[in-house]
Structure formats: structure tokens, C-alpha cells
Description:
Layout: H1 6-29, E1 34-36, E2 41-42, E3 47-50, E4 55-58, E5 62-63, E6 68-71, E7 76-79, E8 83-84, E9 89-92, E10 95-98, E11 103-104, E12 109-111, E13 120-122, E14 127-128, E15 133-134, E16 139-140, E17 145-146, E18 151-152, E19 160-163, E20 168-172
Parallel strand pairs: 1-4, 2-5, 3-6, 4-7, 5-8, 6-9, 7-10, 8-11, 9-12, 10-13, 11-14, 12-15, 13-16, 14-17, 15-18, 17-19
Antiparallel strand pairs: 19-20
Amino acid sequence: MLKWSQKAYRGLFEQADKLRSRAYIERLNRNLGVSISKDSYLGPRVEIEVAPGGRLSIQGAYLAPGVRLEVASAGMLSLGKIYIGFYSRLTATGTLSIEDACQVAEFVKLQQDKFSTETISVAQNVWLASKVEILPGVEVGQHAVVAGSARVAQSLEDCSVSVGRPARTIKVFEY
């Protein structure tokens, strides 16, 4: 007699997700311009679109369900060991990079205009709260915190806390 427990049932689905994720990663790695490390996790319903000539590098990132990554033909999207929350959207027409130890909450948008080649750079150990928008040409410094629903139109310094639309720095702390 076989007993089903909720824990065992959940475990079967997690294992199936990991296998599906690995197969998807291997298929993407065969395409030119795409590099996804084996310690990365792509959740269900993650969408990745890389145009010919675009480059995508994911090194140990955890992409929650519903994340969408888009890379244009001259674009470069580089993700370190980070977490990207549910239904976030990253669009690269120029260079977009997020370094290690960053946390990106749900519904965050890092988007460049269709014809923009300006870079978006997020340094190490940054927290982007829910529904944050970062516009082209912005550099977010190390250990920065961006509050929920903020719209970042200008660069933020290291160790800063920023809020509002447009985002303004309300505190700089020592690290």
C-alpha cells in the first residue's frame, strides 16, 4: 500500500521542476550568445528571449516563476548569484548587469528603451523592493536599498537608502 503525503507530493513536483529546468538550461546553452551555469534555477513559466547577436550570461541565479528576460540583438544581460522575484522583467538593448548577492523582489522592471545603448548597472549586495523601476543610464552602488514602487532615474551611491517616484536618497549609512 502506497501512502501519499503532502510533503512527498510536493517533493515530486520540485524534482520534476529541477529536471525540466536543467533540460531547458542545456537547450539554451547550445544557442550562441547564451551561457547559463548549472547551479542556476529557472522556475516555471520563466521566459527568455535572446535575439541573434545578443548575449546572456546567468551565473548561479535563482529566477522565480514568471520572470521574463529579453536581450536585443546588440544587448548584453549579465546576472551573478542573485535572486529575482516573481514576474520581474529585465530588458537589455545595451548592457544590463546585476552583480552577486543582490535581491530583486517581485514585479521589478529594469528596462532600456528600444534604441538606448546606455547601461544599467546594479552593484553587489543591493536590495530592490517590490515594483521598483530602474531606467537606462543608472548605476546602483554597493549595499544600496531601493524602497518599493520607487522609480530610479539617476545613479545611486553606495550604502544609500532611496525612496519615491523619482527616487531620492533619504539616508547614507556606513558599512
